[in-house]
Amino acid sequence: MTEIKLPSPKLKGDVSVEEAIFKRRSVRDYKTDALTLEQLSQLLWAAQGITAADFFRAAPSAGASYPLELFVIAGNVKGLDAGVYHYNVKEHSLSMHLKGDIREKLGTTAAFNQKCISQIPACISICAVYERTMKTYGKRGERYVHIDTGHAAENIALQAVALGLATVMVGAFENKKVGEILNLGEELKPLYIIPVGYQM
Q1: 117-138: pLDDT as tens digits
Q2: Which domains are delineated in the chain?
Q3: Which of 6, 63, 84, 85 has an alpha carbon 20 to 30 Å from 118's alpha carbon atom?
Q4: SS3 track for 90-108
């Protein structure tokens, strides 16, 4: 399977954490302008990128169990064909998971006709393999997976602001239908769909 190496993330920007927090809003109306691979790279790195030699990541995880897997639903990203891509954390790369533009189907069929999903240049779906955390923490590990998801999602939201982009956190969808449309395996559970683009 061909790996698409992402540009290296920048480790210093022009927007402070305080400014990003102040400006962050949930946005549901977007322009159709394309995203770049550089922007996508930065967003994925902020969510789950490697930040240390021992493979620790940008977002905390209970017991460093790292249950999250990220998928990019690309429709209008320069340098990417339309499709669903899996983020390879250790290689900071993408691999084609599913060909074709599934944004309309995802937004209308699985997410209760949310136009922000259908029209956005790209979405990031945060999914989880619960067993990675629950094998250590038992039933309470389920809560930890959800906490991990919140950490990663907020990093995406703040990084988007720093890049001049906007996001909205979408949790209103039918899990089974999202899994079918994204062609997820049984162990992968979708927890968030995060549209990313330029505010209208």
Answers
A1: 999 999 999 999 999 999 999 9
A2: 3-197 (3.40.109.10)
A3: 6
A4: CCCEEEEEEECCCHHHHHH
- Half-sphere exposure (CA, 13 Å, Cβ side) for 35? 34
User: Is pLDDT at 175 greater than 70 in this prediction?
Assistant: yes
Strands annotated E in 31-130: 68-74, 83-88, 93-99, 122-129
Our CA angle for 6, 44, 198, nearest 5°, is 100
CB 43 within 8 A of CB 86: no
Spatial separation of the C-alpha atoms in residues 12 and 20, rounded to whole Å: 14
Residue 110 has what DSSP assignment?
A: I
Point out which residues pair with 190 in neighbouring strands: 127
Q: How does pLDDT run across 179-196, given as a tens digit for each residue?
A: 999 999 999 999 999 999
> Quick one: which of 198, 191, 178, 186 has its CA closest to 84?
178
Question: Sign of torsion, CA 142 146 152 153?
Answer: positive
Edge-to-edge strand list for the sheet holding 188-197 = 3-5, 93-99, 83-88, 68-74, 122-129, 188-197, 166-167
Both structure tokens of 42: 């930065």
